[in-house]
Amino acid sequence: MSKTKIIHALIVLIVYILLAGCDSKQNRRISIEEYRSKMKAGWLGQMAGVGQGAATEFKFNGMIIPEENVPAWDTKMINQQWQDDIYVEMTFLKTLEDYGFDVSIRQAGIDFANSEYQLWHANKFGRDNLRAGIAPPYSGHPKYNAHVDDIDYQIEADYSGLIAPGMPQTVIDLGEKFGRLMNYGDGVYAGVFVGAMYAEAFFETDIHKIIEAGLACIPAKSQYTEAIRDVIKWHSENPTDWQLTWQLIEDKYNLNPEYRKFSCSDTRVNFNIDAKINGAYIAMGLLYGEGDMEKTIVVSMRCGQDSDCNPSNAAGILATSMGMENLPVQYKTNIDETTNFSFTAYNFPSLIKVCETLAKQAVLRAGGQIEKNAEGVEELIIPKQKLVVPELEQSWEAKEITGDVNFAKEEMKKIIVKVRSNDDLVNVWQVAGPFTKEGIELTQILDEVFEPETNSNYDGWNALKFSNTDYTDGMIDLRKMYPMDHAVAYLKAQIYSEEIQEVNFEMGSDDGLKVWLNNEEIHYNNIFRGHAQASDVVPATLNKGWNVILMKVSQGSQGWGASLVVSDSDRNLLEGLKYR
After folding, report:
1. How far apart are the first and last CA of the chain?
2. Do the Cβ atoms of 489 and 561 come closer than 8 Å?
3. Which domains does the chain have, with CATH numbers?
4. Which of 102, 311, 352, 374 registers the highest number of CB atoms within 10 A of its CB?
């Protein structure tokens, strides 16, 4: 071989080695075992934050929660299978499990429209839009949804980072798909910011770097970015005084109308569910928490407003960076591994399993690999993604809508949960209660037998003075009548049918529900949940003439009530029925 050829071969070899080295630096590696540990810790962090903060949610608005009002941690708080702040995002996981990462935003919207849990704010109005035929992303457009800058996607975006370790563009793409079902502008950026912090926390423990990774994924000139940049700046100026930083946030992001341009409430009230101020409180917990789980939760909680969701996001991100080995023992004790999260098919082990499956799919879809290293350990090889940050959109200067905003007829057939107005609900009822039993609480109370279900001649019934304007979020509000916990009440109505016919009882309850038709039990659902119309759809047979329906509704804590719509087998409203 000539000298020239030898030199040429050496140059090629050196270039190849250099390129290979550069390529390896572009990739991140994490073992499946470490990924699973961090992802599992991330879910537990969420559950810990929302569990400890739940009793304070929106009870302290425009004020710091006094130290004496901070709930003490109890290991029982870790199990939050009934919490909407946890289970709503599992709807998105199920869509991805069923259809993969290339699922259309319209199919995502159909799945969300068919969810049966109670919702509020941007989630509620986004889902109402979907059920009414307004397709995404227009369901989350300011023209149709006055809550698009609210906190909703920020609350539920944790899933996006937990299934996309080290893949921020995947988080952005998921935000553009699922976040736009209900949010727009800062409301979407909030969720992407949270998800991207989770994605980075698989490889980073420095909180400042984790926050910067989140900010890199959203428009730099958005008000949301401005809020987080302010918290970083004020923390650097006041590193030991989080309450001073809280006041600076309060003055600018709660009391200044320039930063409430699309809030669903204004500066005349202290209630503020805008994503910006609540996102600032997430950053507060992370920065002033100094890597300590308890301190992170408490600081974020004590900032007030949505004081269970914010510590949930903050603690989930921190816990992801820790992994199970470093997570304090009090946050990984007494985990319920059998109970399903409400309205889902997932218990805790199956949740972990589906996230791992989706993470592997995400890595391969991004051009990565799954392979064993020299020690035989299976690893995710994650390529560096080029970020494509969405163009700046602000809700008060929303882009014009072009094109058809509606679902097609064939798509609407897939939305089986109908939009019901108060006029559609049965509102002629008798009520009996409340009934309690010493020492019996939560779901146990539904199984206790009281006289209205055993004595057809029970004389304690009272006519419910009720009209269609008296519903609270689409339900008969029993808590207004009986402001108490750990009890049951009974509702009774008579339904007249001209003939024997098959019907559907579309029922919602907060909490559990037991139902009899003509003295025969037709439904039992012993659950701790918020109300959503048609959470339970039960086929039944109406006799010719008068039929008696009896509903027993249990109360654990907070909301209490029920609703009923009678429809035909195709879920269309049934005409010609009479009630008394």
Report:
1. 103
2. no
3. 28-412 (1.10.4080.10), 422-579 (2.60.120)
4. 311
Beta bridge partners of 379: 31, 371
Q: Which two tokens stand for residue 551?
A: 């509903």
Per the CB < 8 A criterion, the answer to whether 489 and 432 are in contact is: yes
d(CA 554, CA 16): 70
**Average pLDDT of each block of 10 consecutive residues along the chain (580 residues)?**
55 44 71 98 98 95 97 97 95 98 98 92 94 96 96 98 98 98 98 98 98 98 98 98 98 96 85 97 98 98 97 98 98 96 96 98 98 95 97 96 92 88 89 92 87 94 79 84 93 96 94 95 89 88 97 90 92 90
Model pTM score = 0.82
Distances (CA, A) of 480 to 167, 340, 362: 48, 30, 48
Q: Exposure string (b/e) for 456-487, b if CB count within 10 Å is 16 or more?
A: eeeeeeeebeeeeeebebbbbbbbebbeebbb
Q: Which strand (E) or helix (H) includes residue 515?
A: strand 513-517
Which pair of tokens denotes residue 275? 């994503």
Please answer whether residues 360 and 30 qualify as being in contact, where contact means their C-beta atoms are separated by less than 8 angstroms. Answer: no
Residue 239 neighbours by CB under 8 Å, 6+ apart:
none
Q: Which residues contact 554 (CB under 8 A, 6 or more apart)?
A: 443, 445, 446, 487, 488, 511, 512, 513, 526
Put residue 29 in one of left, alpha, beta given phi > 0 → left and psi -120 to 50 → alpha: beta
- 488 - beta bridge partners? 435, 554
Backbone region of residue 568 per phi and psi (left: phi > 0; alpha: psi in -120 to 50; beta: other values): beta
Q: Cα dihedral sign for 198, 201, 205, 206?
A: negative
DSSP letter string, 6-22: HHHHHHHHHHHHHHHHH
CA distance 65 to 134: 40
Distances in Å between the Cα of 233 and the Cα atoms of 227, 236, 248, 351, 559 are 10, 5, 11, 37, 40
Q: What are the C-alpha distances in Å from 491 to residues 42, 426, 517, 527?
A: 42, 11, 12, 18
Quick one: tokens of 138?
């227009």
Cβ contact 282:194 at 8 Å: yes
Backbone angles phi, psi at 416, to 5 degrees: -90, -20
CA-wise closest residue to 421 among 182, 147, 128: 128
- In angstroms, how far is CA 287 from the centroid of its own chain? 24
Beta bridge partners of 151: none
Tell me if 491 sits within 8 A of 553, measured CB to CB.
yes
Q: At what angle do helices 186-201 and 32-53 cross, to 10 degrees?
A: 130
The encoded tokens of residue 513 equal: 């529900």
Q: Which residue has the tokens 């009896």?
A: 550
Complete DSSP assignment for 157-189: THHHHHTSTT-HHHHHHHHHHHGGGT--THHHH
Tokens of 277: 């101020």
